[in-house]
From TrEMBL:
<protein>
    <submittedName>
        <fullName>Uncharacterized protein</fullName>
    </submittedName>
</protein>
<feature type="region of interest" description="Disordered">
    <location>
        <begin position="151"/>
        <end position="177"/>
    </location>
</feature>
<feature type="compositionally biased region" description="Basic and acidic residues">
    <location>
        <begin position="151"/>
        <end position="165"/>
    </location>
</feature>
<feature type="compositionally biased region" description="Basic residues">
    <location>
        <begin position="166"/>
        <end position="177"/>
    </location>
</feature>
Length: 177
């Protein structure tokens, strides 16, 4: 099944089958087979991932950021709440309220590391997508070249058959009655 935005859900095979039947009914020449193959190969081509632009965060990134901020806020608060409930007296050398603790600094460092790894992986995905798009373009061009070669082979075979018939006629071969 394939969903087109919020409009409708269409079975994928049904949509393609209708398209193929309609296209083939409209064709009149045998040479249009290569056109059909080109259209079908383009029809089956799909981009799997869109390029990444860090200045425009995705919904997943916004959700991750909100969750991250909530966890950091909750983690800082819960560590102080836990200290308050222990009943242990506060030492004078302890971290003042609101100052970042060692554990929150470690969490922030880990989050920074994860963000940089995420960005690096996104760039790799974008590069692979570009390579995939280039590869698909080359495959389409190869299919077009093969179709053109097949068409020219057919033309050559027809010309060769015509030449053979004319040679038979000129050399006294049997003439059709």
């Amino acid at each position: 099944m394939r969903q087109f935005s919020s409009l409708q859900t269409v079975p994928e095979d049904t949509a393609r089958t209708r398209f193929e039947h309609t296209w083939r009914e409209d064709q009149t020449s045998v040479d249009c087979q290569s056109d059909i193959q080109q259209v079908l190969s383009a029809w089956r081509t799909a981009v799997t991932e869109l390029p990444y632009f860090p200045e425009h965060p995705t919904q997943d990134e916004r959700d991750f950021q909100a969750t991250e901020e909530y966890i950091l806020h909750f983690y800082r608060r819960s560590s102080f709440v836990h200290e308050d409930f222990t009943g242990s007296p506060q030492l004078k050398d302890s971290i003042p309220y609101g100052a970042p603790s060692t554990s929150s600094i470690a969490v922030q460092a880990e989050l920074t590391s994860l963000r940089s790894e995420r960005d690096r992986l996104r760039w790799e995905v974008a590069e692979k997508d570009e390579q995939l798009i280039d590869q698909r373009q080359l495959q389409r061009e190869l299919a077009q070249a093969r179709a053109e070669l097949q068409r020219r082979d057919q033309e050559l075979a027809r010309a060769h058959a015509t030449l053979e018939r004319s040679k038979k006629r000129t050399h006294g071969g049997p003439h059709p009655s």
